[in-house]
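User: Sequence in, structure out. Go.
Assistant: Echoing your sequence, followed by the structure tokens.
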Amino acid sequence: MLPSPLQRVADDRFERHGVTLLLKRDDLIHPDLPGNKYRKLVLNLSAAADAGHGTLLTFGGAYSNHLRATAAAGRLLGFTTIGVVRGDELAGRPLNPSLARCAADGMRLHFVDRPTYRAKGEPATLEAILRATDARDAYVIPEGGSNALAVRGCAALGDELRGHTDVAAVACGTGGTLAGLAAGLGPERRALGIPVLRGGFLGPEIRALQERALGAPTANWSLDERFHCGGYARTPPELLAFAADFEQRHGSATGLAVERIYVAKLLHALTALTEEGAFPPGTRLTAVITGTGRDPA
């Protein structure tokens, strides 16, 4: 479903500060390729097909939405898919629901130790992975799908929001969605990224992505690093309580099931920032809903 729906949410935590909260429902784009995963993959899949590649190889952790989306794309479009998974200790164990969904969609899972995974961008390490998976002719998509083509694909998201928002916010893993969102919004509007990982490394990576995709970084985005809740996939009780409360407040009106790893942190951050007075009265604030909270199985 493109363009994805834009829903206004009546929430007193925003309205008493004069802020209008909107939800950009990218989770409704496609049942198997929700949200930013579709936008980041679509141009990569086209490039792979145009170049005659029959196999896609990509990377992710044990709960990677990107791996799930790539596996689904392979099933739908006829690609063989290989997922290189961080953590060789997972090999031989029962698969969690995310990896089980990948396998059910035909993805071959290849587990590597963490030092190898960290070095996956080095040519020698990548070549060794391609040899080990017998995939020398594969089209390689980076972790999270974030590359120049992904940034261009996500620019359509910003373009859809022009004229409808003043600030558009998105949860960030690898930064590709924010890089494209900011480019598509144009210079008069602001893009805000809420990283879900610790480390403070995303700023340079987003600038580099924009340079590769656009020729130069844009100046209309920023990051707030305070809302990762301890790191990726960390969902403390207070975050789970917030997500459950948001669903109770708005689930019947919107049909939204709040995804806990990315979307819950985004919505919690925007609520806290609004309480801090980060957005002037009259601001139209859009939360980009990048994934679904429904069980992957």
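User: And one key feature?
Assistant: The mean pLDDT is 95.
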